[in-house]
Amino acid sequence: QKNVGILAMEIYFPPTCVQQEALEAHDGASKGKYTIGLGQDCMAFCTESEDVISMSLTAVTSLFEKYGIDPTQIGRLEVGSETVIDKSKSIKTFLMQIFEKYGNTDIEGVDSTNACYGGTAALFNCVNWVESSSWDGRYGLVVCTDSAVYAEGPARPTGGAAAIAMLIGPNAPIAFESKYRGSHMSHVYDFYKPNLASEYPVVDGKLSQTCYLMALDACYKHFSNRYEKLEGKPFSMSDADYFVFHSPYNKLVQKSFARLYFNDFLRNASSVEEVAKEKLAPFSSLSCDESYQSRDLEKASQQVAKNLYDAKVQPTTLLPKQVGNMYTASLYAAFASLVHNKHSTLDGNRVVMFSYGSGLTSTMFSFRLHSGEHPFSLSNIAAVMNIPAKLKSRHEFSPEKFVETLKLMEHRYGGKDFVTAKDRSLLSPGTYYLIEVDKLYRRFYAKK
Ligand code: ACO
């Protein structure tokens, strides 16, 4: 099969959000800590009416409607999520409600879980299936869905929530360059969810930042080596038009791109300008460990990479800054932001993607973009996602009301025998919502 990849995308995020500026004041943090320090503008969260299942039901049905896809055309469905609602029953099985109505139960695939990486694992599974001898000619479907919530404290402003659905098949406008790939996997305790009674992770924030950057370095090295082996010339940042990162918060994305720049400098890649070489020279003798701790290096590399960041990364940052960390959906929401901002000029472009999931698992891979043909064109994907309208129709909650909502959700997590509030006026028509969880923990959803 040629040009296997993403044919169509739809994104859904809750209409309820809190402004980071208001939250930082409420939390007693210094002014600018969340907005400039973390680089975040706003954060979406689920109220009691929504969860990872309802969000993915909404994203999948909307994708089918807007691209004219019949549920019988799907042969594989893979879900990536780290939000645990049931330790056995997959989110995929909830989504089967959509397909059973059309008599289609012949659909492979289940859920993939490892922190924010599950969506990428799901995507690779689907692409591999289409490229394999067991492919039956139907589409694959990937769903990334998460609700990221943290206990009170410094990590709380790095939450978020969303679901993304992606249709997979050959001749895609967003085609995998499957040959170029680099992974780094390792055993660390940077972010994990050992407390099964709580939705909140245990997180070592500083360690998670360093693990992320170490994984980025390792993946970039493997990716570049693979590229050089196949192309006979070294890879540098000038060989890609855009870089898309898993985005826990924007500051880490700024640091990550600067880190790639430093990597190019160390490998003496041609893309690094002379002035930058001078500025980075003092840091070339640092050991690898020292380089993660050096504030001066961080500052210098961010400064020399600034123009390239504006050109190659900034267009990918809209949704992650506005919605927050969407865990498995975060990387793909960043990519969706690029399609939204640049759809008319992306033909022939290469986009490098970096996926990171704590614990840890990480891969760098690349897409080659084509304008595509309706309905599977980049411009139609941008039109369908209609990101401006979704952002505009949101409802801001006060920080007090946000905290109150999270308290209720703590109480509800793992609970049974409750119904949700009848007032669903904040949800747009077509949105799925949770009606009740009965005495046997069975969950019931409806569509507004
Ligand atoms: N104005 C401007 N900037 C400020 C201000 C201010 N008033 N106050 C602080 N800052 C800056 C800090 O200098 C720092 O920036 P820097 O790193 O460039 O120096 C930044 O704001 C954050 O402040 P810190 O005090 O360093 O960090 P904090 O203890 O508040 O925690 C953290 C931040 C670790 C990211 C926390 O939110 C967290 O644990 N989040 C979850 C873990 C996470 O997302 N890890 C990323 C990879 S793993 C994953 O995806 C889950």
TrEMBL record:
SUPFAM superfamilies for this protein: Thiolase-like
Q: What does this protein do?
A: Catalyzes the condensation of acetyl-CoA with acetoacetyl-CoA to form HMG-CoA.
Record-level Gene Ontology MF annotations: hydroxymethylglutaryl-CoA synthase activity
Question: Member of which family?
Answer: Belongs to the thiolase-like superfamily. HMG-CoA synthase family.
EC main class here is transferase
Q: Which gene encodes it?
A: LOC104608333
> Where along the chain is the active site annotated?
E82, C116, H246
The UniProt record gives the binding positions of CoA as S208, K251, K255
Name the Pfam families on file: HMG_CoA_synt_C, HMG_CoA_synt_N
From which source organism is this entry?
Nelumbo nucifera
What highest taxon heads this organism's lineage?
Eukaryota
Locate the Hydroxymethylglutaryl-coenzyme A synthase C-terminal domain: which residues?
174-448
Q: Cite the entry's keywords alphabetically.
A: Lipid biosynthesis, Lipid metabolism, Steroid biosynthesis, Steroid metabolism, Sterol biosynthesis, Sterol metabolism, Transferase
Protein's name according to its UniProt entry? Hydroxymethylglutaryl-CoA synthase
Q: The Hydroxymethylglutaryl-coenzyme A synthase N-terminal domain covers which part of the protein?
A: 1-173
- E.C. number: 2.3.3.10
